């Protein structure tokens, strides 16, 4: 009996117009087996064989996936490459498996994200900032950066509580006019209770929030800052180019100045890596 992944690969290729002989050759299967699988699909219609665990479904394609990663391909491109070979995998399943591969194989992959695929978020400490005239408090700047365009959103906050973290996300989504497929986060206490990259225990509030907005939260591994290098650069940029050498009379003055700098100076510049403006 065909394994689930083999069955799905047969059907995917057949739907793309491949002949039974072509499918058998591509997947190294007997032509009779291919014919039987297609007949079964035609009889069952939308019903499928019982699901297997994600690991069992994707593991046979491990070497092919690693080969794609070694070419520095994004998750989207890996998914497309596999589909060209008749292998149909869900995007979320693939991203989780790639994360596991990076740990097991000690692979450090620089992802070239597609538009709308990924954003990275982090907090950066910016010292004492005004909350009112004559009053200051410890402050952090929240940064969400779209990985493809390098479009930034910044917001100054005075705590790192869950509700503040979520509020910053919502404001960033409004600023961008949409929600990315994945939000890569540092191992912040506001979002992650246990700093475990592969099976993070997320606070229920943040989990429900991510499900409501339809994005996958992806925590970075401990002591692996290169995995969120784009937003790390964003934090350094705002510290060095906005906060350095500036004093504000009150919170409103600081927020107005930050908004102007964000729209005109930051997102209006030609980015050093992409060689183009984010907006």
Topology:
Layout: H1 4-15, H2 20-27, H3 31-44, H4 54-58, H5 62-69, H6 75-84, H7 91-104, E1 118-132, E2 135-146, E3 152-157, H8 162-176, E4 182-185, H9 204-213, E5 216-219, H10 229-243, H11 251-266
Parallel strand pairs: 1-4, 4-5
Antiparallel strand pairs: 1-2, 2-3
Helix pairs in contact: 1-2, 1-3, 2-3, 5-6
Alpha carbon gyration radius: 23 Å
CATH superfamily annotation of the largest domain: Ribonuclease H-like superfamily/Ribonuclease H
Beta-strand residue fraction: 5-15%
Rough outline: elongated
> Which topology of the largest domain does CATH recognise?
Nucleotidyltransferase, domain 5
Query: Can you give the mean pLDDT?
Result: 79
**Helix content percent band:** 40-55%
Task: Report how far the terminal alpha carbons are from each other.
Answer: 53 Å
> Reading side by side through the largest sheet, how are the strands ordered?
3-2-1-4-5
Which CATH top level class of the largest domain fits? Answer: Alpha Beta
Largest sheet: 5 strands, mixed
Q: Which stretches are low in confidence, meaning pLDDT under 50 for 5 or more residues running?
A: 46-52, 106-111, 222-227
Q: What would you call the structural class?
A: alpha/beta
Report the strand count. Answer: 5
Number of helices: 11
How many structurally independent domains? 2
What is the N-to-C succession of helices and strands? HHHHHHHEEEHEHEHH
- In CATH, the architecture of the largest domain is 2-Layer Sandwich
């Amino acid at each position: 009996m065909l394994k689930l992944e083999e069955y799905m690969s047969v059907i995917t290729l057949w739907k793309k117009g491949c002949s039974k002989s072509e499918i058998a050759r591509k997947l190294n299967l007997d032509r009779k087996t291919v014919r039987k699988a297609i007949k079964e699909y035609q009889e069952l219609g939308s019903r499928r064989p019982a699901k297997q665990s994600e690991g069992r479904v994707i593991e046979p394609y491990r070497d092919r996936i690693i080969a794609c990663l070694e070419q520095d391909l994004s998750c989207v491109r890996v998914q497309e490459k596999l589909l060209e070979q008749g292998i149909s995998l869900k995007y979320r399943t693939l991203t989780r498996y790639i994360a596991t591969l990076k740990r097991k194989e000690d692979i450090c992959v620089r992802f070239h994200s597609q538009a709308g695929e990924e954003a990275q978020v982090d907090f950066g400490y910016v010292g004492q900032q005004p909350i009112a005239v004559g009053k200051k408090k410890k402050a952090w700047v929240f940064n969400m950066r779209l990985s493809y365009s390098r479009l930034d959103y910044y917001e100054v906050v005075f705590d790192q509580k869950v509700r503040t973290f979520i509020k910053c996300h919502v404001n960033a989504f409004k600023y961008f006019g949409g929600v990315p497929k994945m939000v890569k986060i540092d191992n912040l206490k506001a979002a992650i209770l246990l700093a475990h990259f592969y099976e993070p225990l997320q606070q229920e509030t943040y989990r429900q929030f991510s499900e409501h907005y339809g994005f996958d939260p992806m925590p970075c591994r401990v002591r692996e800052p290169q995995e969120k290098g784009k937003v790390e650069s964003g934090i350094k940029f705002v510290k060095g180019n906005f906060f350095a050498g500036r004093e504000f009379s009150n919170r409103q003055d600081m927020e107005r100045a930050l908004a102007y700098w964000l729209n005109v100076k930051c997102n209006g510049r030609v980015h050093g890596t992409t060689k183009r403006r984010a907006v």
